[in-house]
Amino acid sequence: QVQLVESGGGLVQNGGSLRLSCAASGTIFRINAMGWYRQAAGKQRELVASISSGGDTNYADSVKGRFTISRDNAENTVYLRMNSLKPEDTAVYYCNAHLTRNWFEAAMAYWGKGTLVTVSS
Known about the structure:
The protein is 0% helix and 58% strand. With 121 residues, the chain is mainly beta. The strands form 2 sheets. Strands 2, 4, 5, 6, 9, 10 and 11 form a 7-stranded mixed beta sheet that branches. Strands 1-3-8-7 form a 4-stranded antiparallel beta sheet, with no helix packed on it. Strand 4 (30-39) and strand 5 form a beta hairpin.
């Protein structure tokens, strides 16, 4: 089994900062891309940021310059540093990882259960 566990969400004021963490555990052979998605109330889930195993990053236009994604491959952990938070960043943030559990399986996507980020105005 594979588990992704997020932490670091909470309530923050407009302009504040938070850092989310997501640790992958279980039977893992290799983790390829990792990323963060978010889903606001009444809206579809959207990509916030992703990072490849080699460190290449990709960001949604709405968070460029404010959010930074990073990962610790030794710890199977991905982080999301969020600065200058706005009320429109309020959402449940989900961790995602494309990984293989052994050398002969194709990579699959795994999801965490989500952590709520609320930005008050």
